[in-house]
TrEMBL record:
Keywords: Amino-acid biosynthesis, Aminotransferase, Histidine biosynthesis, Pyridoxal phosphate, Transferase. It catalyses: L-histidinol phosphate + 2-oxoglutarate = 3-(imidazol-4-yl)-2-oxopropyl phosphate + L-glutamate. GO terms for molecular function: histidinol-phosphate transaminase activity; pyridoxal phosphate binding. Residues 30-358 form the Aminotransferase class I/classII large domain. This is Histidinol-phosphate aminotransferase. Its cofactor is pyridoxal 5'-phosphate. Homodimer.
Length: 366
């Protein structure tokens, strides 16, 4: 058989590495993907399944999940024309590339940031300008603005709270960015439920060049069903809609998302527990000899120990506790004799106890 014509795949794709997460089984504490540690309530699963059971599975779902779009719009005080619901927000990052990026289009991305943005932008052949963080791993609005202005960025993406650092961009800075960038400002608010106070929607209300990306995968606990949103000015969203594939949200995902959206008190309860557990864990890790914690504003935080980061992650994994090695981000790699950062997501109290016990023993045995 002749060789497959791989050279016909666009070079910008061939240069990439596939985003792969190993399938995990037999884990005592899965603290590596910033998910909710809780599956949705059985009552919600039952209600959604009952509803979907009565629909024809041989028929396409709505071209857009109209009921979910309407419910999101109502809850967030937007017009339905201002809302896109997609197959997780990962999927919507492609839409950003499709709508705003030609080869050579200037795009500004602060680092470190959820790696998919840079990967998607490279695949659309954007001219990416990265903006390094300050020493405390926060981002300066002035530095982002300077990069966006100098490059004439069509797209500037910021995340607050940011993954993997857990740090936020102050509301005033978001407003400054929205007013100052030459193009579109995307604010990824995947973890917004963990914050109080004004949100990116308040920035959007005053700035029609703002797009806000959110997800049902984190505080809402639906990572397994894939639901994410992009909201913005209705005129902008309606243009973007033209690029969207039909039927990307299936009946089950829509039904469950509607149920979860209707019970904000459950999400708030879980968020409160997560915040309290975050502080308990951060205090405990900080008290371990030679350990340093960068407290986060979402459901995870960064820490480093006196030991090599890879050894710590591997030893914990051997005990069934999975955390994330984030040293692939150059800003978080070991430097000047300081070990690299590790990221732990907040789990159930039992998972968190398992994490603390294994970390304590790793440090004690070192
Ligand atoms: N944005 C950020 C900042 C994230 O951390 C993640 C998940 N790691 C996503 C988006 C992706 O979310 P989704 O599950 O909706 O694709």
């Amino acid at each position: 058989m002749s060789d497959a014509p791989t050279h016909l795949v666009r070079e910008a794709i061939r240069r990439e590495r596939a985003y792969r997460v190993p399938t995990q089984t037999g884990i005592a504490a899965k603290l590596d993907q910033n998910e909710s540690p809780y599956s949705v309530l059985d009552a919600i699963k039952d209600a959604a399944l009952q509803e979907v059971r009565e629909t024809p599975w041989n028929r396409y779902p709505d071209d857009r999940p109209h009921r979910l779009v309407a419910a999101v719009a109502e809850q967030w005080g937007l017009a339905p024309e201002a809302v896109i619901v997609g197959h997780g927000s990962n999927e919507i990052t492609h839409t950003l590339g499709l709508c705003f990026v030609d080869p050579g289009t200037p795009v500004v991305l602060p680092t470190p940031m959820f790696s998919l943005y840079a990967s998607v932008m490279r695949m659309f052949e954007a001219e990416v300008t990265e903006v390094a963080p300050e020493a405390d791993l926060t981002h300066s609005a002035d530095a982002i603005l300077a990069a966006a202005t100098a490059s004439g960025a069509a797209l500037t993406v910021v995340t607050t709270p940011n993954n993997p650092t857990g740090q936020t961009i102050p509301h005033e800075d978001l407003k400054q960015l929205a007013a100052g960038v030459p193009g579109i400002l995307v604010i990824d608010e995947a973890y917004h439920e963990f914050l109080t106070g004004p949100t990116a929607l308040d920035v959007l209300a005053e700035h029609p060049n703002v797009l806000v990306m959110r997800t049902f995968s984190k505080a809402m606990g639906l990572a397994g069903l894939r639901v994410g949103t992009l909201v913005g000015h209705p005129d902008l969203i309606q243009e973007i809609e033209k690029s969207r594939l039909p039927f990307v949200v299936d009946r089950l995902a829509e039904a469950v998302a509607l149920q979860v959206l209707a019970r904000p008190e459950l999400v708030a309860e879980r968020v409160a527990e997560s915040r309290a557990e975050h502080d308990r864990l951060a205090d405990a890790v900080e008290a371990m000899p030679g350990c340093e914690v960068l407290r986060g504003k979402a459901n995870f935080f960064l820490f480093r120990t006196p030991l090599a980061h890879a050894a710590v992650r591997e030893t914990l994994a051997a005990r069934g506790v999975n955390i994330r090695d984030v040293t692939g981000y150059p800003d978080l790699a070991p430097r000047d004799g300081t070990p690299g950062w590790l990221r732990v997501s907040i789990g159930t109290p039992e998972e968190n106890d398992a994490f603390l016990a294994s970390l304590e023993s790793v440090i004690r045995d070192a």
